[in-house]
Amino acid sequence: MNPKPWLALMLVSLMAGCGGSAQPSGDATKAQPAAAAQKSSERRETVFDPWVGTIDRAKGVQNTVDEQAAEQRRKIEEATR
Question: How much is the pTM?
Answer without folding.
Answer: 0.41
